[in-house]
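Tutorial handout. Part one gives the primary structure; part two gives the three-dimensional structure as tokens.
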Amino acid sequence: MNLSSPKTAVVALGGNAISPMGETDSLPNQFRHTRESLVAVIHLIKSGYELAITHGNAPQVGNALLRTELTADTAPLLPLYICVADIQGGMGYMIEQCLQNVLKRSGIRKDVVTMITQVLIDENDPEVVNPTKYVGQRYDEDAARRLADRFGWQIRRTSAGDWRRVVPSPLPISIIESGSIKELTRAGKIVVAAGGGGIPVHPNEDGSLEGFDAVVDKDLASAILAHEIGATEFFILTDVDGVALNFGQRNEEWLSELTVNESRRFLEEGHFPPGSMGPKITAAINFLEKGGNSVLITSIRKIREALKGESGTVIRD
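Part two.
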């Protein structure tokens, strides 16, 4: 990748990078992992990029839902889209403050802005009729059915044998605030936006917007944001060092480069499952087909090596 001239890029941070599985999801731990993840962001800034930063929020929204369920007898039950908005604000504050502190220590003078972000969806998306996205806690069947009756949930048995709530995950159409985000990045501001894929909204008949109980895939929304703000590059920072065929198997094969056609073919062959690498590859294809230059998929800890072509996977048209 050519780093000689300033470019606008979108950096998508995985939610599990801030709340890793198997670890207590405390605020001190979240702040610690946020600081760790921002080392990669600082490297990109020093390399000449103007950035918009997106982030996942699945673990955090799951905990927010649990809190509102546990207090349902004493406080109003919050809808999912409000939980997404609340977590956007909280995580945005955390990323913003941590980044401000790291920038100051690095001697870099840049403003950081968090934008509470809405994403336009189609309320007639097939996902609305047949929701597939697991959210919240895991339960045995009896407990799940009691909660479903109480709160009006749809539930489904997982591959692990437990039961969870399922909600729609409609495709994102557009980022409502992308114009403002574009102006801010062009002015040299770092913008934290589209957290958790954005707050799902749909238009009413009069054109007004209304929240919708759903979650939007963070990487798919990030690809749309990247296109709408004129980003040339899209960085997907996750918990693996790159893209692999036959991941986790004896014949695992790590890929340093992919074309859009190869990415699409491998996706269709089932190498990239829907719950892990699939949305990232789909997001990369969508971004490149709309005019983006390149997509880099790598881990937070390998960003320096990946920018030098020593790690990660680069996808180009």
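Part three, for discussion. The chain is about 40% helix and 25% strand. The first helix runs from residue 15 to 18.
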